[in-house]
TrEMBL record:
<feature type="domain" description="AMP-binding enzyme C-terminal">
    <location>
        <begin position="552"/>
        <end position="630"/>
    </location>
</feature>
<dbReference type="InterPro" id="IPR045851">
    <property type="entry name" value="AMP-bd_C_sf"/>
</dbReference>
<dbReference type="InterPro" id="IPR025110">
    <property type="entry name" value="AMP-bd_C"/>
</dbReference>
<dbReference type="Pfam" id="PF00501">
    <property type="entry name" value="AMP-binding"/>
</dbReference>
<comment type="similarity">
    <text>Belongs to the ATP-dependent AMP-binding enzyme family.</text>
</comment>
<dbReference type="InterPro" id="IPR000873">
    <property type="entry name" value="AMP-dep_synth/lig_dom"/>
</dbReference>
<dbReference type="Pfam" id="PF16177">
    <property type="entry name" value="ACAS_N"/>
</dbReference>
<dbReference type="InterPro" id="IPR011904">
    <property type="entry name" value="Ac_CoA_lig"/>
</dbReference>
<dbReference type="GO" id="GO:0003987">
    <property type="term" value="F:acetate-CoA ligase activity"/>
</dbReference>
<dbReference type="Pfam" id="PF13193">
    <property type="entry name" value="AMP-binding_C"/>
</dbReference>
<dbReference type="GO" id="GO:0016208">
    <property type="term" value="F:AMP binding"/>
</dbReference>
<dbReference type="InterPro" id="IPR032387">
    <property type="entry name" value="ACAS_N"/>
</dbReference>
<dbReference type="GO" id="GO:0019427">
    <property type="term" value="P:acetyl-CoA biosynthetic process from acetate"/>
</dbReference>
<keyword id="KW-0436">Ligase</keyword>
<dbReference type="InterPro" id="IPR020845">
    <property type="entry name" value="AMP-binding_CS"/>
</dbReference>
<protein>
    <recommendedName>
        <fullName>Acetyl-coenzyme A synthetase</fullName>
        <ecNumber>6.2.1.1</ecNumber>
    </recommendedName>
</protein>
<dbReference type="GO" id="GO:0005524">
    <property type="term" value="F:ATP binding"/>
</dbReference>
């Protein structure tokens, strides 16, 4: 395997016309972005439409140091614009109305369609008028629970057009999780679809929404309108599907079909001019204390940052075909399937299915079908696909590819090499993009035409981003070393607050080290200045790129009447990156058996979602604790991997507990 010394250079033929085609040019631009942000971003904002122009005196303002007052970030304050106008009308006016905005590829290869910029604008305006007719106004939150279909994009941009704040929840979250998120943002309108096929699995989305809406009602909140895309009837079901006979139940007065509402809607909708700092959308992410955090992004800065990172990190050129496999329910789907590509007038592929259906070569056949030039996916998918015979890749023509992206978790060098050699044929650049829901866009990443690549390194900060590594006492580590990854100034796309909870925003991200935004990740800087993200330093787990907190899962496990205490740790997993290893202490006179394990698994799936399903649940009559009663997770992590080198245990109240837990490891662990 490549050592840290291995370096791979961008292919000079592929990247001779790259926006940034040498490392020196990256360094120059980077310096300008840091020393003179007004000039750097000033050139970029000119390419967008502002109804009220940007005032140079209020270009950007911030405070990252709580000792000096409340934390805040503002970009282009006082200017007004509309994001949907910039993504759609601007491109249509520039003569790109007939350009394809999206190729849609269904779960079944027989299902596909396309949407031009002009048609997308028309649909967005129509749906914006539908939302208006339901009483949705500027600032109102709209809950969205959608599969990977074009209506999802229409729904988001329609909100944007009228200044409503979309709150999309990944359609793999359970009814309970969705209800909690609707309640938190008190959305009165919900948009969903009847259902969807993912591979051979059927997801009844509307019935999940029904349960969520019931739960909201029990908590005193009524969703007044539920708009449902009729989707199942227009797609091919997998051959193994049992004919669905029961119709989607629709509640009179509350539920209506999208298609019915769109029929009479006008296709003209004047955009609502929004302040640059007005909210654009919110997106929930896991918090280490359990309750999800409603990360809030605003209008002007997010638009500019999504557009700029997309252009440079993927080196997107007007005739390229870009494909991001992320679900629209995650930030990657927001920034790099919707906002970033459309802001650049790009043509993208949107894919409804899975990499394994109908065969394990689906990704490669889609790349060939649409002649994809930039492909953006997650390490977990790469690891799952590299298990199969390379022949599955090689029998497709992937020669159009130029840039391969990775996101969501650290990419291990084995997966990086396979991606580089087998998928990229040793000529594509790999961009290992580090970022977060909170950062809005890429913050550490190579640039494909400029950065020599090291397998597994997110490399260098993007323009405008100043990264630092801090030691435990908050001192900056210069040169080589490892520490907390932090940023000492805002870039345009950083989140502005947590919805309705500015205190938590300050406490979570700015309290530990005054003056810095704290990512919660650790990183190492090597002797060439490359940054390597090493993973979370807090109690967060990253399962297949889905972030969740240990306490969130623990509190679900302890809801079960037979569980008195639970502790969850991450265990390395060959495909998912990490998986959940749970220790549970049973209440007296109950027994640890398959029935209990099934109930616990079901509980986690119901409360959080199928992706949070534990891999191992171990019976733990006692948990290793310090004398002050704090669970020593460090030791539990060792037990999870059966590593007896547990280090210093002098603070442990009872050392026998550890031996007992090693002896009790379940056979499947
Ligand atoms: C992790 C996803 C290493 C990291 C865009 C971060 C990564 C969390 C990378 C955010 C990467 C994401 N290398 N780690 N290239 N990309 N992460 O909010 O731990 O779903 O804090 O945003 O994923 O996850 P989120």
């Amino acid at each position: 395997m490549p050592s840290e010394k291995s370096v791979y250079y961008p292919n000079s033929n592929l990247f001779k016309n790259a926006y940034v085609n040498s490392f020196e040019q990256y360094v120059d631009l980077y310096k300008q972005s840091i020393d003179n942000p007004e000039e750097f971003w000033g050139e970029i904002v000119k390419q967008f439409y502002w109804e009220t122009p940007i005032n140079i005196d209020k270009f950007f303002m911030y405070n990252f140091d709580f000792r000096k007052g409340p934390i805040f970030t503002k970009w282009f304050d006082g200017a007004t614009t509309n994001v949907s106008y910039n993504l759609l009308d601007r491109n249509v006016r520039n003569g790109n109305g007939d350009k394809i905005a999206f190729y849609w590829e269904g779960n079944h290869p027989d299902d596909y369609s396309r949407l031009t910029y002009k048609k997308l604008l028309e649909e967005v305006c129509k749906f914006a008028n539908v939302l208006k007719s339901k009483g949705v106004k500027k600032g109102d939150r709209v809950a969205v629970y959608m599969p990977m279909i074009l209506e999802s994009i229409v729904a988001l941009l329609a909100c944007t057009r009228i200044g409503a704040v979309h709150s999309l929840v990944f359609a793999g979250f359970s009814a309970d999780s969705f209800a909690e998120r609707i309640l938190d943002c008190s959305a009165r309108v919900l948009i969903t679809a009847d259902g969807v096929w993912r591979g051979e699995k059927h997801l009844a989305l509307k019935s999940i929404c029904d349960q969520s809406m019931e739960k909201c009602a029990r908590n005193g909140h009524n969703v007044e309108h539920c708009i449902v895309v009729s989707h199942l009837g227009r797609v091919t079901s997998p051959p193994t599907a049992i004919q669905q006979t029961n119709k989607t139940p629709m509640k009179n007065g509350r539920d209506e079909w999208w298609q019915d509402l769109m029929e009479d809607a006008s296709s003209l909708c004047y955009p609502e001019w929004m302040q640059a700092e007005d909210p654009l959308f919110m997106l929930y992410t896991s918090g280490s204390t359990g309750k999800p955090k409603g990360v809030l992004h605003t209008t002007g800065g997010y638009m500019i940052y999504a557009a700029t990172t997309f252009k440079y990190v993927f080196d997107y050129k007007p005739n390229d075909i870009y494909w991001c496999t992320a679900d629209v329910g995650w930030i990657t789907g927001h920034t790099y399937m919707v906002y970033g590509p459309l802001a650049n007038g790009a043509t993208s592929v949107m894919f409804e299915g899975t990499p394994f259906y109908p065969e394990n070569d689906r990704f490669w056949s889609v790349i060939q079908k649409y002649k994809v030039t930039q492909f953006y996916t997650a390490p977990t998918a790469i690891r799952a696909l590299m298990k199969f015979d390379n022949e599955l890749v090689k029998r497709h023509n992937l020669s159009t590819l130029r840039v391969l992206g990775s996101v969501g978790e650290p990419i291990n060098p084995e997966a990086w090499m396979w991606y580089y050699k087998v998928v990229g044929n040793e000529k594509c650049s790999i961009v290992d993009t580090f970022w977060q829901t909170e950062t809005g866009g890429h913050v550490l990443t190579p640039l494909p035409g400029a950065s020599p690549m090291k397998p597994g390194a997110a490399s260098f900060p993007f323009f405008g981003v100043q990264a630092a590594l801090l030691d435990e006492s908050g001192r900056e580590i210069e040169g080589e070393g490892e520490g907390y990854l932090v940023f000492n100034r805002p870039w345009p796309g950083i989140m502005r607050t947590l919805y309705n909870d500015h205190d938590r925003y300050e406490n979570t991200y700015f309290n530990k080290f005054p003056g810095y935004y704290c990512t919660g990740d650790g990183a190492r800087r090597d002797s060439n200045g490359y940054l390597w993200v090493t993973g979370r330093v807090d109690d967060m787990l990253n399962v297949s790129g889905h972030l969740m907190s240990t306490s969130e899962v623990e509190s679900v496990l302890t809801e079960h009447p037979n569980i008195s205490e639970a502790a969850v740790v991450a265990k390395p997993h060959p495909i998912k990156g990490e998986c959940l290893y749970c220790f549970v202490t049973l209440t007296q006179n109950t027994s640890y058996n398959d029935k209990l394990l099934n109930e616990l698994t079901k509980l986690v799936r119901e409360r959080i979602g199928p992706f949070a399903q534990p891999d191992v649940i171990q019976n733990a009559p006692q948990l290793p604790k310090t004398r002050s009663g704090k669970i020593m997770r460090r030791i539990l992590r060792k037990i999870a991997v059966n590593d007896r080198d547990i280090g210093d245990v002098s603070t442990l109240a009872d050392t026998n507990v550890v031996e007992e837990l090693f002896a009790n490891r379940p056979v499947n662990a």
